[in-house]
Amino acid sequence: MDKLLVTGAAGQLGTELTQKLCEVYGPDAVLATDINPEAAGKFPYCRFAVLDVLNREQVRQFLKKEKTTQVYHLAATLSATAEQKPLFAWKLNMDSLLQLLELGREFKLDKIFWPSSIAVFGPRSPKKNTSQYAVKEPNTVYGISKLAGERWCEYYYKHFGVDVRSLRYPGLIGYKSPPGGGTTDYAVDIFHQALAGKSFCSYLEKDTRLPMMYMPDAIKATMALMQAPKEKLGVRSSYNLAALSFTPEELYQGILQHVPGFSISYAPDYRQEIAAGWPQSINDRQAREDWHWEPDYDLPAMIENMLEELPKLLE
Ligand code: AKB
């Protein structure tokens, strides 16, 4: 029987992925964990435990007690926060992954999922249709940690047979949980401001184009990757993954069609520099070929669904 452990389960991705894993594997098979005890309230539908992913012994005990077969290791510091706390971000993002890869080897875990990011690319990478193996010289702490993590994932697969699978997520947009500390977070916040009848001030310039994805597509991709037969996976670092690509102004114009009178202003801050080093669009040919990845949502469909679903949760 599959037994799953999710770290960082209360985060933006974890909140929705844990729910999906419970639907697919059954609530008894899933243990949601997070460092924040208050996150327990988010998981009425499955078991929850407090877990500090930097505490190797604690992680070890959980894997042993639970007879865990799969770990979804989502706990991490995102790009904007990482620039504020570089050493802590490096420690959290790297140490927790390396410890888990070692434990994966020790416990012979069936599978590990670990999220990477478009942040592995840097200012020297091609901006458009950036390919899987394009040059990578990330200039953010987050990007450096994700690139190093990818190399370790491939290393542990090749040398120790640890079946770790990974996706380079673009900016994720969802309504069930707020993001925290990312450069792409504006694309979620703008919906909250629009629905609150407020004006939105963007910390990115109006024409800063970034790769993005609606959360249902991110969940679909994660499940497809994790359920794909091992022999189909040609990429053992992390797969490029693409869906949408838009600027703050394009997103604003799309929302304006549904929320008349909504206004935007621009006051770029340090996150503009982070975004400027990232690609504008991604080539995800390998994911499409290896495990038949295809997104469901384009920009208008994402906007429509967000504006339909978010108010229900804000009530
Ligand atoms: C961030 O903005 O840090 C993340 C990411 C693109 O990995 N959303």
UniProtKB/TrEMBL annotation:
Gene3D superfamilies: NAD(P)-binding Rossmann-like Domain. SUPFAM superfamilies: NAD(P)-binding Rossmann-fold domains (SSF51735). It comes from the Bacteria. Pfam families: Epimerase (PF01370). InterPro entries: Epimerase_deHydtase, NAD(P)-bd_dom_sf, NAD(P)_epim/dehydratase. Residues 5-234 form the NAD-dependent epimerase/dehydratase domain. Belongs to the NAD(P)-dependent epimerase/dehydratase family. This is NAD-dependent epimerase/dehydratase family protein. It comes from Cyclobacterium plantarum. The lineage of its organism: Bacteria, Pseudomonadati, Bacteroidota, Cytophagia, Cytophagales.
